[in-house]
Amino acid sequence: MTKLVLLALVGLGAQLxxxxxxMAYGVTSTTLLLAIGTxxxxxxxxxxxxxIGTTLVAGLxxxxxxxxxxxxxxxxxxxxxxxxxxxxxxxxxxxxDTAAPLMSIxxxxxxxxxxxxxxxxxxxxxxxxxxxxxxxxxPLGLVGGFxxxxxxxxxxxxxxxxxxxxxxxxxxxxxGSIDASEFLVAIAASLGFLFGIGGEGVNATWALALLLxxxxxxxxxxxxxxxxxxxxxxxxxxxxxxxxxxRTLLRSDWIDAPDTTRYAVYTVIxxxxxxxxxxxxxQYRLHRDEDRQIIAAAAA
Length: 300
Description:
This protein has helices spanning 2-21, 25-35, 40-64, 70-91, 99-121, 134-151, 155-166, 171-197, 204-227, 230-251, 259-286, 288-299. By secondary structure, it is mainly alpha-helical. Helix 1 (2-21) runs parallel beside helix 9 and helix 4 packs parallel to helix 8 (171-197).
């Protein structure tokens, strides 16, 4: 019972972060399942099974608060489902340890770009409101779905920073659209795992506990993201991308940094992140009316 309560709390916390920042549900939940001895394929399959419910509720909640661009959802979600099914079917039994550091470098660079762009320059203005092309979203969806299925998480970390970096979609709609499209990815990945490994190692009770926690958090996160200023939200998302992927790199076989080095790096990142958030809040207050006019014009 204690383990189930813990899983439900993890699901709640992971969905609260995911629904607010557009990433981290899969990574957080999968990490916990691996820590208690679940195999990588079974952990990913269990999490994706839970995500069918959490992403449905999250997508509906974001839609209710006006955070979803349905054109973006279809353009990225359908290719994402294809990539997720392929990754779950053909690579569910393989380790992604070798590919993880390389992917982390790419995501780290994207995170740095998002972090600096939003913190220093604020809400990107030049391209806001311009359509996101299928030739950009389709490959992004394929890669994101593939990484998500094989790594137990990755749809948000791949899709959210890439779309934010384009400067064409405001942060709350980026997060809402990524969360809504993840429903298609979760279904496709679950079908792929069912085809690839059947029900072996998949714990339906654990999936239900994760699901219940996520369902509670989804509407709260969708409401929260609508009220966080875009500049602050961009800085927050960029910071968590940097921290998450730096952690992966420092713990990988490529670097294998000792604990003292890792903790020192984390401390520096936290200090810079806190300072950046404080600066973003200050600048948002100074330019509040201007940012609201830009967002209203882009939505018109």
